[in-house]
Amino acid sequence: MEHVAEHKAMFLLRGKGVSKGVVIGRAIIMDDADLEIPHYHISETEVEAECERLEHAIKCVYDELETLQRELPHDAPKELGPLLNVHSLLVSDPLLAHDCKVLIREHSYNAEWALSAQGQNLEQKFAAMEDVYLRERALDIRQVIELVINELLGGGNKPIEFAAKLSVASSTIVIARDITPADMVRMRTAQFAGFVTDVGGPTSHTAIVARSIGVPAVVGSVNARHMIHDHDLLIIDGETGGIVVNPSAEVLRFYQEKEQKLLADKSLLWNKRKLAPLSLDGEQVTVLGNIENPEEAEEVLKSGGQGIGLYRTEFLFMGNRDGLPTEDEQYDAYASVLKQMQGKPVTIRTLDIGSDKSLQGELSRAVNPALGLRAVRYCLAKPDMFMTQLKALLRAAVHGHLKILVPMVAHRHEIATVKKMLSEAANQLRQESKEFSEDYELGVMVEIPAMAVVIDMVLDDVDFVSIGTNDLIQYMLAIDRVDSDVADLFDPLHPAVLRIIAHVIKAGIKKKKPVSICGEMAGDSLYTRLLLGLGLREFSMTAKHIPEIKYIIRQSHVGLITSKVKKAIKKNPRIDLDGSGFIVEPSATQSS
Ligand code: PEP
Ligand code: MG
Q1: Residues whose beta carbon lies within 6 Å of some atom of ligand 1
Q2: Sequence ranges of the binding site for Mg(2+)
Q3: Where are the domains of the chain?
Q4: Residue 159 pLDDT more than 60?
Q5: Which one of 100, 399, 401, 518 is the catalytic residue?
Q6: Which CATH architecture has domain 273-584?
Q7: pLDDT digits (tens, 9 = 90+) for 203-229
Q8: CATH of region 8-267, choose from 3.40.50.1010, 2.30.130.40, 3.30.300.20, 3.50.30.10
Q9: Active-site choice (87, 205, 399, 401)
Q10: By the 8 A CB rule, do 350 and 379 touch?
Q11: Residue 205 designated active-site
C-alpha cells in the first residue's frame, strides 16, 4: 500500500518488540476509552440480587470462552486454544465469585466495584512474584476481570464491531490497551498488519499469539493508545520495539525500502523452498520441521521440510481437558503425522512435561522444576502413563518411518529402562492382538551437559541423537530460559556451548550415528553457516524458518566454511558473527 508522508509532527515511542518484522500502516484504536467502572454502595435488600447479577455475568463470560474454544477454526494459531482455556479456568475459579461476594455482602459494593477491587488484590499478589512468567499472568487476571465487568455493563461485543471496521483496510495497525486471546479469535477474519499494546511483556499471551500468526508487534508501550490517533501513519519495528508516529518523508522512504526488501527476500525464499538443500560443493544436508500438533505437518511439507525432526507430544497432553489422552487418541495423532509424511522420517518425542510445561490442573511442587521431575524422569515415575504412550507409538509405526526420541536423558540406565519398556509394550500389544511394528529407530535428546560430555559412550545404545540447544544452553550456562532477567546471558556463541556441540557432532560422525539439532539455534539463520562448519548435517526447526535455512545452505561452500570454523574455534577466544552469520576476524573485532 502506498503511503504519503504528512505534515503532522513526527514522534517516536518505544515498547518491547516481541514479533519480528517492519510494518507501515494506519493506526486504528481499538478501545480509546478506559473501562469506566461504576462504584456505588447497594442497600441490604439488594445484596442477593447483586450476587446473582455477578454470577450471571461470570457464567456468560465462561460460556462465551467455551464457545470460542469449541468453535476454534482449524487454521487458528495453535496457542489460542490453551490461552482461552487459561481464561476459562480463571473466570470459573469458585474463589473469584466467592471473594467478590464477600465484598458485596460485607462492604455493600456493587458487583463491578467488587470485581475491580478483587482484581487489584490478585494483581498485587502476582506482581510480587519472583518468577517473571508468573508475574505476567497478572495481565490474564486483569483481562478476565475486565471481560466480566464489560459483561455487567452490557458492553456488547467490541472486538466484533471492531473487526468489521478492520476488514475494509488491509494495512492497519491495531492500537489497544491489551488484546485478549478471546479478542484475537473474534478478530481472526479481519485483516491487520501489526499491533501495539500499552501493556504486556515478551512472554505475555498477546506476544505469543503475535509470533504465532507472524505479525510484527510491540507491547508494553505505555500510553501508546493515548498518544496515537485513529488514522495516524505509523511504522512499527517488531524487533527493536520502535514506533514512529507520523514519519517524515525521509524516514518513511527509508522504512518503505526496508519493508520492500524484506518482502522481496521472503518471496524469493518461498519460490525456492522445494529445492534440495545441497551445498555449493555438493554436501547433502537435511532440513526438517518441528511441530506441536498433527495439523502442523502439512505446513512443514508446504514449506519444503524433508520430514519431522521434532514432534513435541506434550501439547496433546496439555490441551486435553478430560485427563490424559487415551492410547487410541495418541495413536490417531501419531499415525496422522506418519501418514501425512508418506515415508519421510517422523521423529516423535516422548512426553516432555514438567519445568515450563505442566499437565492440566497440575502444578509442579519441585523447588526448581527445571531440575526436577521432568521429561523422561517424569515418564519413568509414571510407568502406566508412559506405557500407554509407547504402545500408541508402536501401533503408529506401521504407517511410516518412525523415530522415537527420548528427552532429558542423563544416564545410560534411563535408555536401558526405556528399551525394556518398549519391548514390554510390544508384548502387551501382541497379547491384545493389535497391529504394531517394531521397525523404528530410537534416539535421545542431548540437552543435559553430562549426556553431551559422555556421548561417545552412549552412541552405541541408540540409533541417532538430537541436540536440544534450548535446554543444553540453559543447563551449560545456568540461565533459566524463562527468566527474562537473565535472558541476555543466554549465549549460543559461548565457547563452552560451541565446544560441546562440536564434540557431540564429531562423536556422531565417528560412530556413524546421525546427529541433528532441533533447538531454536537450528532455525536461526545467524548460526546456519557456523553449524555447517561444525559438521552438522541435519537441522530441525519451525516450518516458517525452513525456506530461509535451505536457501543459506544452498549458498554455502561447506568445505571452505569448515576449515574457517575449525581454525577460528582453535585460535579465537570467542567466535563472533556478522549479521549474515560469517565469522568476524578477531582483529576486526578488536579495532571496533
Ligand atoms: C530444546 O531443549 O532445545 C528442545 C528442542 O526442546 P524444548 O524446547 O521442547 O525443551
Ligand atoms: Mg528441551
Answers
A1: 310, 312, 352, 447, 468-471, 518-519
A2: 447, 471
A3: 8-267, 273-584
A4: no
A5: 518
A6: Alpha-Beta Barrel (3.20)
A7: 676 777 777 777 889 988 888 888 898
A8: 3.50.30.10
A9: 205
A10: yes
A11: yes
